[in-house]
Target: protein disulfide-isomerase
Amino acid sequence: LVLSLAWLGPALGDEDEDEEVVEEEEKEKKEDEVLSDDIREEDNVLVLHEHNFARALSEHQLLLVEFYAPWCGHCQQLAPAFAQAATELRNESSPARLGKVDAMTQTALATEFGIVSYPTLKLFRDGNRTHPLAYTGRMDSQGIVRWMQRRVGPSATLLQDTDTAAAFVNSQDLVVVGFFKDLRGEAAQAFFEVASEMVDMTFAVAEAAELFQAYGLSADTVCLFKKFDERQTNFPVDPARGLDTAELTQLLRAHSLQLVMEFTNETSNQIFGAKIPHHMLLFLNKSSSEQLSLRDGFRAAASGFRGEVLFVVVDVTGHGADVLPFFGMTPADAPTLRLVKMENNRKYQMEQDNFSDLAIRTFIQAVLDGKVKPHLLSAEPPEDWDMRPVKVLVGKTFEQVAFDETKNVFVKFYAPWCPHCQAMAAAWEELAERYKDREDIVIAEMDATANELENITIHGFPTLHYFPAGPGRKMVEYKSTRDVETFSKFLDNGGTLPVQPPVTKTPGNSTGKEDPSALGTDESRDEL
Model:
C-alpha cells in the first residue's frame, strides 16, 4: 500500500497543479455520490454504503449482501461468480437481488453486522435489518442462484394427489417427500427449514390421507425416493423428539449417495461433502477384468454400514491416480483396501488384503471397535538428515529427535507443493543457521504428506510445533508471525513470546483476515 501511494503521488512540482485540481474534483464527486441514497450497479450487483443501505432493504424483498475487502484474494476470486449470479437472477425477474459493501470504507456497516472476515455474505429479508441470515451455500454462481431461488418461493412443492405424487417421484433420480398429518406443525416446519438449506435436492410435502396410504405410511415420515439402490428409504418422525434438522440433513446426505461410489472429478464434492465419518476405499485398475470383479464383494459388505462408512472405488489409472501419494502407494499396489477415519485422516490397512464381503465387514468392525492400529506412512531417513542446519525428520525418526529430553526442538511440518511453506523456507534456513551451534536447540522439518505420526495430526501447512526439553512429552504450537526475528524471540524466551502491547483493531474487522471457510484456505496456511 505504501509503495502504491508513493507511485500515485510523485513530487513533480508546480506543473501538476491542473492534475491536482482534477483529482480534487473527482474526490468531491465521489463524496457527493457516497452521501446520496442513489443506488448504482456494477454487473447487476448493487453497490451499497451507509447512505443507501436502508433504501436498498426497503426496495428489495430478498437482498444478499457481500461484505468484502478490496485486497482480499478470496473476494477477488468470488467477484465474477457473484456478478454472474446477480445477472442470472436479474434476467429471470427474480425478487432476489445481490449487493456488495466495501467493508474497508463502510466501517459503520461492517461494525453493525459484525463482519470479522472476508468475504462474508448475509441475506436480508423483507427489509429486516436486525436479523440477517448467514449465507450457507456454495461459493459459485450456481450455488448462489439455487440458494436464493429456494428462498424466493416455497422450499417444497405441495403434492395434492397420487398422480402428481407419482409424477414428482419419477421426475428426477432423487427426490425427498415429507409426509405430515399437519403441515403447520413443528415437524413440517423443521422439514421446510431443511429443504431451504439443501438446495441440491428437490423437496415436496404431502398431507392427504390417500398419499399416506399409497406409499405405505401411517405416521409422519420423510421419504427419500431414488432411481438407484433402495428405491424408497423412510425416516419416521419420532413423536417424542420431533424432527431434528441436523440429523435429517445428515441422513439425507448419507442416503442420497450411491451405496458404492466411484471416485471421479464429478463425485469428489459429493463424497467429501456428505461428512460420513469413515471411508472404505477399494483401489483397483479398471482395465483389469479380474480386479473389476472384486467390486461384488465390496458392494455386498457396504449395506450394513450405510451412514457410518462410505464405500468408494478408486481407479488407480484414472482420477484416483492423484490421491495415491497420500497413501504412499503406486498403481502397482492395486488391488488393495484402505479405511480412512475422516476426523483425523488416520488410515487403516489389512495385514493381508482379503476382498470377500465377510473379511471386509470384519475388518471394518474391528477398526470401529478400536482394535486395529492405524497404518502410518514414513519415508526413509536421508543419510545426511542431520548434516545440515535444518534437520530432516521422517516418521521413523521423529520420536527420538522431537522428544529428546536434552533438546528444545522446533519442527516445521510442511507440504512440498505448499506456496506458504515455500515462502518461509529461507527464513527457516536462516533460523537454523543462527542456532546451529546451540547444543540445546534443534531446528527441524518434516514432509507431512509423506510421514504420519500416531499422536499428532497436521491439519494445514505449514504447521510449527515446539517440543521443549525435559520430561513429559510436551508440545507447543507456534501461531505468531513467521519471520526469523520473531522465531528467535520465541526460542530465546523458552517457547513463548514476550508479552506484546495490545494491537489496535480496525473497526468492523477484528482479524484483518480473509475468511478461511469462504473459499477453502486462509491467506497464510494451506488446509488439508
The mean pLDDT is 87. The chain has 17 helices and 25 strands. The two ends are 31 Å apart (CA to CA).
